[in-house]
Specification:
With 239 residues, this protein is an alpha/beta fold. 41% of the residues lie in helices and 23% in strands. The chain has nine helices and seven strands, in the order H-H-E-H-E-H-E-E-H-E-H-H-E-H-H-E. InterPro entries: Methyltransf_25, SAM-dependent_MTases_sf.
Length: 239
């Protein structure tokens, strides 16, 4: 592992979330479709398992198969749900989903593959009537500030909501509903990060100090420019 990756995981290890979100997002997504009571659910790129509890609450008779490529995220999630027979944790690649599901949930990670590529790959893993629910960063203005553009410079595919819908349709899906993630969803991610930064800052140097600085700048950018960008939660199904 490189020094940069070590620094990143020093900051992120054992955080409750790895991206913006809240239980209400999961509940809303499930309400948009008619899923079977004993639904099979995939939580793709589940991180430390932050949405597994909400998925279980929304579909209490369902089964959640959650997976991530990062071993310590999977271990953390296993520790949280070790006693739940309706949760299976796997270390696996989001690009290759085995089995079939009624709901594929992916919070804030579709951009690793791209919306169209992800939905195209996952289609074979959807049961009849199944849906994909995913959150994706998007612009909320036609003229974002230089600071906001710089923050998202490494994701040139970022678009507005209409652009996300175009990428969904390019995969042969239709959009059922969309919901912009709330400020509370962002604070659920950033508040624990800020607390961790405060604990790590004394004596931090080299790659760790750089990661702390970059994360503080990211948080400050969102607080100042939250009206310019956000995460759009989209529920989509194959046509």
């Amino acid at each position: 592992m490189t020094d940069d990756m070590t620094a990143f995981f020093t900051l992120h290890r054992d955080l409750p979330r790895e991206g913006p979100g809240e239980p209400a997002d999961v509940a809303w997504a499930v309400e948009q479709v008619d899923l079977p009571a004993r639904a099979e659910i995939a939580d793709v790129a589940c991180g430390p398992g932050s949405d597994i509890g909400a998925l279980r609450a929304a579909l209490p008779q369902g089964h959640v198969t959650a997976f991530d490529t990062t071993a310590h995220f999977v271990d953390t999630a296993r520790g949280r749900f070790v006693a739940d027979a309706n949760v299976t944790l796997l270390r696996a690649d989001m690009a290759v989903i085995a089995n079939e599901y009624d709901l594929i949930w992916c919070a804030g990670a579709v951009y690793f593959l791209g919306v169209t590529k992800a939905l195209t790959r996952w289609r074979k893993s959807l049961r009849e009537g199944g849906v994909v629910a995913f959150s994706e960063p998007c612009w909320l203005t036609d003229n974002p500030s230089e600071a906001a553009r710089a923050q998202w410079a490494e994701y040139p595919a970022m678009s507005d909501g209409a652009g996300i819908e175009e990428r969904v349709e390019a995969a042969g899906y239709e959009v059922i509903a969309t919901r912009l993630l709330s400020d509370a969803a962002w604070e659920n991610y950033y508040a624990p990060l800020e607390a961790r930064i405060e604990r790590l800052r004394p004596g931090a140097e080299g790659p760790l100090a750089e990661v702390l600085d970059a994360t503080e700048a990211e948080i400050a950018c969102w607080r100042e420019h939250r009206d310019e960008f956000g995460y759009l939660l989209t529920v989509a199904r194959p046509k």
